[in-house]
Amino acid sequence: METTTKAMAEQTANPTPTPTQQAVNPSPTQQVLKPEVSTKLINPVSLQQLIKRDRGMMTLSDDNMMLKQIHETHAPDGREFNVRHIFRLVEDILNRATLTVDPLTSAAQTLETTDDRTNQASFIALLEALSFTIDRISHEIAYRSSSGSDAHATTLLIFNLVSSYSWDAKLVLALSAFAVNYGEFWLLAQIYPTNQLAKSMATLKQLPVIMEHSGPLKPRFDALNNLIKAMMDNTRCIVEFKELPPKYISQDLPALAKAMTLIPTAVYWTIRSVLACATQISTLTSMGHEHWISATSEAWELSTLAHKINSIQDLLKKQLALCYQYIEERIEAETYQKIQSLIESIHIDNMMILRTLICPKDDVLPLLEGSTKTRVNIDVLRRKNVLLLISGLPISQDELSILEQIYDESRVNRTRTESQYEVVWVPVVDRSVVWTDAMQNRFESLQATMPWYSVYTPKLINKAVIRFIKEFWHFRNKPILVVLDPQGKVVSNNAIHMMWIWGSPAFPFTSSREEALWKAETWRLELLVDGLDPTILNWVKEGKFIYLYGGTDMEWIRKFTTTAKTVASAARIPLEMVYVGKSNKREQVRKCANAITVEKLSYCWQDLAMVWFFWTRLESMMFSKIQLGITVDVDPLLREIEKLLSYDKEGGWAILSNRSFLFVNGHSSTVLSTFTQYNAWKDDVPPKGFDIACMDFHSKLHSNSLPCCRFEFPSEVGRIPENMKCPECLQIMEKYITFGCCHDESAIKALF
Question: Could you tell me the sign of the dihedral formed by the alpha carbons of 227, 228, 233, 238, in that order?
């Protein structure tokens, strides 16, 4: 450090004359130079000497002294300018001057035309205000890089020239000055073959000779390009720190505070690198090709600088990422609060709510219309009832096909009250997961099948909106249907259960409408199979006995169907039986349905979508009642629904009906025993009727052997009840956490 200080003192005491001083006051020697003497004197200090001197500075251990010196030059007076505008211009120059690993071929390269704002009055005024400073730095860089000046001293000189500016502005001004010289050099290299003026100027700068000896220079230019790229990346990072919004971040944030301590060092070494790059170009244009043999060594020096800058930049980028994360969290929290406030406020229409939830930008067409597949503005939903279909990408084809059927039926007569709504698919994806081509294909495939509106891309959905959907509307992965009235008021946090149970007649999907629909319902066969199979409804009209049964135990199925037919024949009742499968184990259900059909055991649904919908409606009935705060001890209908769902988890089951009247809802063991013991109650059939006699005997068996009750709530269903009462004994049920896999390959494949 003493050597450096001494060198700086000597230079201050005996300053090297500037280029201007030399031109105005030429020395006597310069006036009488002979050609051979002149050639010797105009050669600058050898590049090896410059590099060695710079290497000594690069390995100084006392960085604190360097920081102290540059901080002493830092005296910002509050002047500000749009650094980004100038930096864009610098980037354009340096990118076009360093297009490939071999810049000597850069004349053949092309870049996309940048956004040209250089003719704007404000930009011209900005350049006029900065031109003197940039020109002065440019002259100093050009002169001192060719005169062997100490790199550290020259860097401090540049810091003094820009002492009034902020750190980012200092760096951009220095980089602008370098871009002027460097850009001029490569502009001549690109155009001199076709422009006589450029050719003459290029000859003075030895450009034709450089071109002839491009081979040995390639390592040097590769290193030069890499260093310039590192300089630009570092500058870009520092400019980004300056542009961080003060509304969301303060200087006392640890990540930003740490970055602020690193930035002066980053600016220093970037300006030092500017001088190193300028020295390279100056050496090429002022020394003969016999001196270029040192290119490999000099390339190593440039690479060392690039490594140092990249190391500093890595540290800055880590802090910048933390700052962006903090800002994102602040903005997300602010947006979340805004959504909450909007939801609770009164509006004249639904536009503000929909724009906030889907896309707040006015210049974006955020929706895709289902039938025409064209992008449309969100205004198409103004003052309409809107059903937000919120789901992830793993929405099943069964769910989509049933929803589409309900939607299409509502479109048949658009004048009906229950048809006055629009559906919008809002895809919710995990932003922490990398968006892959497979996910994009899955999204586009789903979107193509939907006849209703959909958000054009999941990327439009703000993270705060996703958080609100999950926390406020309890979305997990199962689709939910949030209903907004024409004023944007949320009338239902999840109407999907109403849609599955009643379809469009549940419009306008409010809680009061839901309660009214339940008041009109009873435990009857039509409730279970409505909208599923007209054949069953015809049997009801014909006055037949109808047995619905399920499970995947083929041995029990054979015994049950055979015994039931025997009993029906003995009792002389018209009987029809329907196999409705199981709520899971799709492939086993398919195999059972095929076997039942082949063996002609009973009628069954070959379309597994009908089986899925049957069980989905049952589960929706339970969830609908739970959402309304209804419990099994006060609602007999809910009690029967929960019994059936529980029997499905415990094995086989059967429901026996006489027309609409459901007289037995039992587990496989008690129902089969009721039929196998027909002789014990057959005498009660004439006075009571088959249905009552069967029901009474089954009740006796059931009371003697209550089956265990079990309910499973997948984690993705959203709100799970804190506790439940057993539909059999009305005691509070125990709660467990279970993990399960039914090896249903077709269902798994449907998700991807």
Answer: positive
Q: Do 507 and 417 contact (CB within 8 A), yes or no?
A: yes
Highest mean pLDDT out of 4-13, 137-146, 367-376, 740-749: 367-376
Cα 60 to Cα 3, 67, 262, 301, 356, distances in angstroms: 11, 12, 17, 15, 55
Closest CA to 587 of 552, 614, 615: 552
Phi, psi of 170 (to 5 degrees): -55, -50
CB 232 within 8 A of CB 94: yes
Does residue 206 sit in helix, strand or coil?
A: coil
Number of helices (H), then strands (E), belonging to the chain: the values are 32, 12
pLDDT at residue 151, as a whole number: 84
- Output the CA torsion sign for 164, 169, 171, 176: negative
Helices (DSSP H) in 60-213: which residue ranges?
63-73, 83-97, 121-147, 151-161, 167-191, 196-204, 207-212
Backbone angles phi, psi at 657, to 5 degrees: -135, 150
User: Residue with structure tokens 């009164």?
Assistant: 346
**What is the rounded CA–CA span in Å between residue 320 and residue 242?**
11
Whether the Cβ atoms of residue 231 and residue 273 lie closer than 8 Å to each other: yes
Name the burial class of residue 132, with classes exposed (0-12), middle (13-18) and buried (19+) by CB atoms within 10 angstroms of its CB: exposed
Q: Quote the DSSP letter at residue 134.
A: H
**Residue range 73-98, pLDDT digits in tens:** 998 888 888 888 888 888 888 888 76
- Is the N-terminal amide bond of 508 cis, ω within 30° of 0? yes
CA distance linking residue 749 with residue 745, whole number of Å:
6
Between the alpha carbon of residue 71 and those of residues 68, 269, 313, 332, the distances in Å are: 5, 14, 20, 37
Residue 71 has pLDDT above 80, yes or no: yes
| Contact partners, residue 572, CB within 8 Å, separation at least 6 | none
Residue pLDDT, tens place only, 616-638:
999 999 889 988 888 878 888 98
The Cα–Cα gap between 213 and 174 comes to 30
Cβ partners under 8 Å of residue 204, min gap 6: none
Q: Which residue has the tokens 């460097």?
A: 182
Ordered DSSP codes for 301-369: HHHHHHHHHHHHHHHHHHHHHHHHHHHHHHHHHHHHHHHHHHHHS--SSSHHHHHHHH---TT---EE-
Mind giving me the DSSP string for 417-480? GGG--EEEEEE---TTS---HHHHHHHHHHHHH-SSEEES-GGGS-HHHHHHHHHHS--SSS-E
Q: CA–CA separation, 293 vs 286, rounded Å?
A: 15
